Amino acid sequence: MAFDMDHLVERRKLRRKLSVWRIVAVLALIILVAAASLNFVVDEDSLSHKKSHIAKIVFSGTIIGQERKLKLIRQLEKNDSVKGVIVSINSPGGATSGGEAIYNALKQLGEKKPVVASMDALAASAGYIIALPAERIFARRTSITGSIGVLFQYTDLTGLMDTVGVKMRSIKSAPLKAEPNPFSGQNPEAEAMIAKMIDDSFQWFVDLVAENRPFDRQRALELADGRIVTGGQAVDLQLVDELGGPEEAKNWLIQNHNLDSNLQLIEWKPEPITESFPFGFASKIAASLLPQPIIDLFDQRNTAVQLDGLVSVWQAQKNEQ
């Protein structure tokens, strides 16, 4: 009887051990499959980038810092397989400093490889800034572009504070510290200070237009009244060179730089947000098992930055009746 009990206990222990090892084996298999899938995707992208091709980089939405896109531009510059670059733009603009950073990166890229720009529905203000380094600018006839200028906005909450009976007091080292302030109302000295900042950035914007377009600075100033125009109007104003899209831009590159007509147009995308996860390869494997909506949440959290400071952006505003 004792022998039977001992035998039963040993069998139960063996079963538990087998169950544990089965779980470990399944987990190991899942990790191997995930790692193989991850390597396949990486290798696939790597192989496509090793063949001679024309690269396309897309700027869509509000322009802020976009460090991942700046890194991508540097990679394009160093890749010998990239024979030309099409900058595709669909943006209302954004932070003036963000437009400046992308402009400088594309200008440097253009010293090594031919660069053309293709405007989609919208390429206004800072969206127009990032088109300027291109050797040739294409736009759809109905694209919206222009809006050359700089903007600074702040809110005056003094009326609301008076209504609710709240006062804001502050002790400052100097009168212009933390001005303009939404809690202290209109301050002529602060507004004069901001106006000088805006004018400095505006003159820089006008200089970029005059430097990169086929007319002088006086003409650039005339066009820098904040107006928006269609792609068709922009061609007449010489803000844009030609009507067309990415295919027309590709054909222009091939014809004007003696490139192989069989070159593929391949979109380059920034590294996935999962590349910035901590814990290296282990996190990449874990991320490959997560559903895409969860990855998107990480991406949105990483890029959700308040648009503040000097901005070069076009915004459709409600008409006052």
UniProtKB/TrEMBL annotation:
Residues 109-259 form the Peptidase S49 domain. GO terms for molecular function: serine-type peptidase activity. The chain crosses the membrane at residues 20-42. One of its GO terms (biological process) is proteolysis. It comes from the Bacteria. InterPro entries: ClpP/crotonase-like_dom_sf (IPR029045), Pept_S49_SppA (IPR004635), Peptidase_S49 (IPR002142), S49_SppA_C (IPR047272). Keywords: Hydrolase, Membrane, Protease, Serine protease, Transmembrane, Transmembrane helix. PANTHER family: PEPTIDASE S49 (PTHR42987), PROTEINASE IV (PTHR42987:SF6). NCBIfam families: SppA_dom. This is Protease-4. It comes from Cohaesibacter marisflavi.
